[in-house]
Automatic annotation (TrEMBL):
It comes from Funneliformis caledonium. GO terms for molecular function: hydrolase activity, acting on ester bonds. This is Lipase. Pfam families: Abhydrolase_1 (PF00561). GO terms for biological process: lipid catabolic process.
């Protein structure tokens, strides 16, 4: 007679269960150390950062506000309550700084918008509110396991896309997905509860993005906005626009940077096989709450150069990225603001998409019950919003041929050589 539940698991499930228990014990031990200031000081006391600003200042900035104000811009923080009661923190850069001459990068941004068929003057509204002209509005959205800080990590001011857009006359907003450092609140559930982390790309598309857009348009009085998404920020927009005809009328242009709808998989064959296995194995290994919370521990205790090197090696191991388009100094700054929390379920959703080779909704049925069941694909062919696509020529996560077959004909497509998925080039 077998043990209940355990008797239903195969060998891989048993192995994942053992490894998962060990990982949980190790994680608990290491997390307890993070509360000990002596341990943190012991790891970091010998490290002296001799760099000068902006690298040193931006890297150790605690939040979005400190990073923005360092460059001399103003910002606002706004709160969005979603229809399913998550509380999202979003950021706004309402105005730019006066410049004597238009920079070449600002001019390039305007030309890109023109190439996409929508100029600054086209989307600028001609009516007034409180005796002030309403600016054209742009919303930037981060990728997987990131937050709004990722948009302002460049060491050169002229490469900070939000600032360039603000200087070009846009009202700039930056979104934050549920679960990250600026959106870790719910009306009913606490982050310590599993129910808080019961979300995937479906919820980003059904609630986070449309509710954020509605709030921004109501606040600004603008009839529509331009959306710029990176990686998962593109996926949630493709998904949201495909299922909401009303949302298409609120987005006048969607610029997709490093678009992700159907990643090819991971570079390492062993890890790739693992993520394509049953979702139960992933849940056994990582749990059902936040994903890779230990990253914050290692960021605190490791010497910054070692932490940067560790992330570099991890990305090469998983994705085959060489990171040649970023300097070591830029990596050190960016990597400190790269990671933020998300749910394990959202990772499982991506694994399902990779395994099925379809940009689909989260499949609630386990594999052994999926015979005769067809999970809903996001109907991206139905999108009416004009789309501009930018992708790296060496991006292992973007299958551009598959993507373009899924979409209505984009108004603009540009390959950026030799960039990978992460990079510091703007447009």
């Amino acid at each position: 007679m077998g043990f209940p539940i355990l008797g239903r698991l195969n060998f891989r499930d048993h192995l994942a269960l053992v490894i998962g228990v060990f990982a949980l014990l190790l994680e608990g031990l290491l997390q307890s150390l993070t509360t000990c200031d002596f341990v943190i000081r012991l790891f970091s006391m010998r490290y002296q950062d001799t760099r000068t600003p902006p690298a040193k200042v931006i890297q150790y900035s605690k939040n979005f506000q400190e990073m923005v104000e360092y460059w001399g811009y103003t910002m606002e923080e706004h709160i969005v309550k979603t229809q399913d009661n998550y509380i999202l923190g979003i950021h706004r850069i309402p105005t730019g700084k006066p410049h004597d001459n238009e920079t070449s990068t600002e001019s390039n941004i305007k030309s890109i918008f023109n190439d996409c068929g929508i100029s600054l003057s086209t989307i600028r509204t001609n009516y007034s509110r409180s005796s002030k002209e309403i600016k054209p509005v742009v919303l930037l959205y981060h990728g997987l396991m990131m937050c709004s800080e990722v948009w302002i990590c460049n060491l050169e001011e002229e490469r900070q896309l939000p600032f360039l857009l603000a200087d070009a006359g846009y009202d700039v907003w930056l979104g934050n997905a549920r679960g990250n450092k600026y959106s870790m609140k719910h009306v009913k559930y606490k982050p310590s509860e599993s129910r808080f982390w019961e979300f995937s790309i479906d919820e980003f598309a059904l609630y986070d993005l449309p509710d954020t857009i509605d709030y921004i348009l109501e606040t600004t009085g603008a009839p529509s906005l331009t959306y710029i998404g990176f990686s998962q920020g593109t996926a949630q927009s493709f998904a949201a626009l495909s299922i909401s005809p009303k949302l298409n009328k609120k987005v006048n242009l969607f610029i997709s940077l490093a678009p992700a709808t159907n990643p090819k998989g991971l570079q390492n064959p062993i890890v790739d096989a693992f993520i394509k296995a049953s979702p139960n194995i992933v849940y056994l290994f990582f749990g059902r709450k936040a994903f890779l919370t230990m990253t914050m521990f290692w960021q605190r205790v490791l010497y910054p150069p070692i932490f940067t090197e560790l992330l570099d090696k991890s990305m090469k191991f998983l994705f085959g990225w060489k990171g040649m388009n970023m300097t070591k100094e830029q990596k050190a700054v960016s990597y400190y603001h790269l990671y933020s929390f998300t749910s394990v379920k959202s990772l499982v959703h991506w694994f399902q998409i990779i395994r099925a080779s379809n940009f689909q909704m989260y499949d609630e049925l386990p594999p052994y019950l999926s015979m005769g069941h067809s999970c809903h694909n996001f109907p991206t062919k139905q999108i009416k919003t004009p789309i501009g696509v930018f992708y790296g020529g060496s991006d292992s996560l973007v299958d551009i041929g598959f993507l373009l077959k899924q979409l209505p004909e984009p108004v603009f497509v540009k390959e950026v050589q030799p960039y990978e998925h992460l990079g510091k080039k703007i447009l």
